[in-house]
Write a structure and sequence with these properties.
Layout lengths: L2 E7 L6 H8 L6 E7 L17 E4 L4 H10 L5 E4 L4 E2 L4 H8 L6 E9 L4 H16 L8 E4 H6 L10 H10 L5 E10 L1 H6 L1 H16 L4 H10 L6
Subcellular location: Cell membrane
Keywords: Cell membrane, Glycosyltransferase, Membrane, Transferase
GO molecular function: glycosyltransferase activity
Length: 230
């Protein structure tokens, strides 16, 4: 199998270099595609361009950027990676060995970087919820076959909750492969807005999305760490 790792970026100058450096040992069997929404400049000006195989510019919007990256991907398996998230050791081998028995997509368990002990509890809750519901979050690094991604019509281009939406669509094709190997994702949002406040905010946003709230409004609340009018 060949893999395509797609990284949507927006103002990630402080994190992208370490993210790309961590991926270099994988390049023999995968391509690294950055889809940047920071500027419309030529990709020749992109910092650390030599650490990626393709640099693509796109309009802002994570789901839109990931779809653009997928349209330029040549891999059999697409891996959607956030710029502040790191794959576990032997991630590609784990996917290739276990993405079988009719399963077409999946995600990893997650651990959150940071000093607060509650970050471990939050990560455990995220992993448990995902196993019970079959819904993956983008922070858990969603991977999917090209065929399944095309079958569900790619990510819905909504401002937030695109990971929930595509998980629901992919579940109709196959149950997810929930790998216990852990990706490491930044706990910066949790620490910035407060752990308990962020837990309540995320549950509030998910509940409102379930009842049909506009993802554009939810994205505005999410970006500001607010419960009500942005």
């Amino acid at each position: 199998m060949k893999f395509s790792i797609i990284i949507p970026t927006l103002n990630e100058e402080k994190t992208i270099a370490s993210c790309l450096l961590a991926l270099q040992p994988l390049r023999s069997n995968c391509e690294i595609i950055i889809v940047d929404a920071t500027s419309g400049q030529s990709n020749i000006n992109y910092p650390h361009a030599h650490l990626a195989d393709k640099i693509i510019y796109s309009a802002k919007g994570r789901s839109r950027q990931m779809n653009v990256g997928a349209s330029h991907a040549g891999g059999d398996i697409l891996i959607f990676l956030h710029a502040d998230t790191y794959l576990p050791e032997h991630a590609l081998q784990l996917i290739e060995q276990q993405l079988s028995n009719g399963k077409q997509w999946g995600r990893f368990d997650i651990q959150l970087s940071g000093d607060h002990v509650m970050l471990n509890v939050i990560a455990w809750m995220m992993n448990l919820r995902s196993r019970l519901t079959g819904i993956a979050t983008g922070d858990q690094v969603i991977f999917v076959t090209q065929a399944a991604f095309a079958a569900v019509g790619q990510y819905p281009e909504i401002a937030l909750m695109e990971d929930i939406a595509i998980s629901k669509a992919l579940k109709k094709i196959s149950p997810p492969l929930c790998l216990s190997a852990k990706v490491t994702s930044s706990g910066r949002r949790w620490e910035r807005y407060g752990l308990y406040r962020t837990i309540l905010l995320m549950w509030s946003l998910r509940l409102r999305y379930f009842f049909g709230a506009d993802p554009q409004l939810l994205a505005a609340l999410y970006s500001r760490g607010q419960f009500w009018k942005p």
